[in-house]
Amino acid sequence: MITVIQRVSESSVKIDGKIKAQIGWGMMVLLGIEEADTQEDIDWLSKKIVNLRIFPDENEVMNRSLLDVNGEVLLISQFTLHASTKKGNRPSYIKAAKPDFAIPMYEKMIGALETGLGRKISTGEFGADMKVSLINDGPVTLVIDTKNRV
């Protein structure tokens, strides 16, 4: 799994011109799933996201997590994170998981994040044409790949 995590002061996702979900201060997380991903990846990554200390403390040092600041999460599926651009100019998405595998994994990630936070998160809609808006706070943007944990 690959994620792009952005600390946001607000974020939303629209589908067919209607707001599907929106959050205030927290994280907007783009999630790319590949066939090699497992429950272990979900467990590790969800724990990492929930406990990632990217929010400022009283001294403006990034020392607080989502749990510490009661931050919100907007999780968006994003198969293009697994694009290969090594050959030519058209990205290849062969590494991205097909929907029959990716949808259940996406749903498991939603559940894992909700369990870790102790509350519901906001989401996009798997496979939909989504318009995502955000105000990146900081800016703070991180990329985490579960295949590069060490």
TrEMBL record:
The keyword Cell membrane does not apply. NCBIfam families: D-aminoacyl-tRNA deacylase. It comes from the Bacteria. Its main location: cytoplasm. Keywords: Cytoplasm, Hydrolase, RNA-binding, tRNA-binding. Its EC number is 3.1.1.96, 3.1.1.-. A motif (Gly-cisPro motif, important for rejection of L-amino acids) lies at residues 138-139. CDD domains: Dtyr_deacylase. An aminoacyl-tRNA editing enzyme that deacylates mischarged D-aminoacyl-tRNAs. Also deacylates mischarged glycyl-tRNA(Ala), protecting cells against glycine mischarging by AlaRS. Acts via tRNA-based rather than protein-based catalysis; rejects L-amino acids rather than detecting D-amino acids in the active site. By recycling D-aminoacyl-tRNA to D-amino acids and free tRNA molecules, this enzyme counteracts the toxicity associated with the formation of D-aminoacyl-tRNA entities in vivo and helps enforce protein L-homochirality. It catalyses: a D-aminoacyl-tRNA + H2O = a tRNA + a D-alpha-amino acid + H(+); glycyl-tRNA(Ala) + H2O = tRNA(Ala) + glycine + H(+). Homodimer. This is D-aminoacyl-tRNA deacylase. Belongs to the DTD family. It comes from Algoriphagus confluentis. A Gly-cisPro motif from one monomer fits into the active site of the other monomer to allow specific chiral rejection of L-amino acids. It is found in: Cytoplasm.
